[in-house]
Design brief:
By secondary structure, the protein is an alpha+beta fold. The chain is built from ten helices and 14 strands.
Length: 402
């Protein structure tokens, strides 16, 4: 039997992603894909210099979802080297993004991992339309089954005639609102790619609400135009306009998890440095915690919810528990019998509601799904800083009764 180079199958990035979507998006393919678009929109307006503050998620009756922000708007000019326009380079090209640039802000806490998340979402779609508003004009770039081009007609119809065009030059139309700016991505996933998967819209919206609470000034609106999937929880359809911070996040996660809100709570924050490939790198954190049964824990890193926890959560729990245990051992009237030991750190961890948010550049993620953070140096640096900050908080006479 002959075996030659002609027997080797070569796939482009779109073909490979559609054939093996879990390689780039994890096992929870559609949820991860949609979250990538939501994360990008929130991250865009979370930076004040980008000129935006609003993110709108629209659930359409055909099963498609639109994610819109009023940030800068994606680039629409063409790259002189590749000929690709800015939208295609950003959302239609694997391993492309500003975070790979040598002059990218070293303090950036973006959630990006390998530059393929949002592009992978487009690759597994039946149709994606990207509308950009900037400089008084509106630009449209479509993708059919992952490839750039144009659809016939004005309706969002994935079955309309499609013409592929990899190096399409965008021509802007006059904008009805000359000062409008931002990007809208409307996506309809191709269920032939992942036939046994569906979007858990409640989980996606919960994550969006939580991320908005971690980004001061970001306003979130959810519009339901007749979503054909499972019923959308009414609480997640409510607009969010503040307040921001881990205290608000703790309320959200306790309410969604059915845990009573802690009657008293500590709200503390801190910062420090940990070691990355860039050397000593600054990080910052904030947390809100209070007594609760059953325990509820919500961990976020760079606005991304990490249900698998990881280094930042381990550090927060360790620092918080040790500080509370140390504080308790210093209080004389604990009702302890002679020789009886006081509470251990794990005793506090078992009856605590905790929301922690960490911002750390170059953080190590477990995968593109970003369910967990892996960075021993972040853990080592953060845990004692949390303990110190909680001890300072507990020493404040105003907090003596909490």
């Amino acid at each position: 039997m002959s075996y030659s180079a002609a027997d080797i199958t070569e796939l482009d990035d779109v073909q490979h992603t559609r054939l093996r979507p879990a390689v780039n998006l994890g096992l929870d393919v559609l949820n991860t894909a949609l979250r990538e678009l939501v994360d990008n929109a929130i991250e865009e307006v979370a930076v004040p210099s980008h000129g935006g503050s609003a993110v709108t998620i629209t659930l359409h009756d055909d099963g498609s979802v639109s994610v819109a922000d009023d940030g800068r708007g994606l680039p629409v000019d063409s790259d002189p080297v590749t000929g690709k326009n800015g939208i295609v380079k950003t959302l239609g090209t694997a391993r492309a993004g500003g975070k790979f640039s040598a002059h990218a802000d070293a303090a950036s806490t973006g959630a990006g991992l390998n530059g393929i998340g949002a592009a992978a979402a487009v690759f597994i779609s039946a149709r994606t339309d990207v509308t950009v508003r900037r400089a008084g004009k509106t630009y449209l770039q479509s993708f059919g089954h992952g490839y750039p081009g144009a659809f016939e007609g004005k309706d969002f119809d994935p079955n309309a005639e499609f013409t592929r065009a990899d190096n399409q030059k965008l021509r802007g139309a006059g904008n009805r609102k000359p000062d409008a700016h931002g990007t809208t991505v409307r996506i309809l996933f191709d269920h032939a790619v992942v036939p046994d998967s569906s979007v858990d819209i409640g989980e996606v919206l919960l994550r969006a609400h939580a991320a908005a609470r971690m980004c001061p000034g970001v306003h979130l609106t959810v519009v339901d135009e007749g979503w054909p999937g499972e019923e959308v929880p009414a609480a997640l359809l409510q607009p969010f306009n503040g307040p921001w911070g881990t205290d608000s996040l703790l309320d959200l996660m306790c309410t969604s998890g059915g845990t009573p809100l802690p009657p008293v709570r500590a709200v503390v924050e801190g910062r420090g440095e940990y070691t990355t490939g860039r050397g000593a790198t600054p990080f910052r954190w904030s947390l809100s915690a209070g007594p609760a049964e059953p325990t509820t824990v919500a961990a976020f890193c760079n606005t991304v919810r990490t249900p698998g926890g990881g280094s930042h959560l381990t550090a927060a729990v360790k620092g918080l528990s040790e500080a509370l245990a140390d504080r308790a051992s210093r209080i004389r009237d604990l009702g302890l019998a002679k020789g009886e030991d006081g509470p251990e750190p794990q005793d506090f961890a078992a009856v605590t509601a905790l929301a922690v948010d960490t911002r750390a550049p170059d953080v190590g993620w477990d995968s593109q799904a970003k369910t967990s953070v892996s960075s021993r140096s972040l853990n080592v640096a953060m845990a004692p800083d949390v303990a110190r900050s909680v001890n300072v908080w507990a020493a404040n006479p105003a907090n003596g009764e909490t």
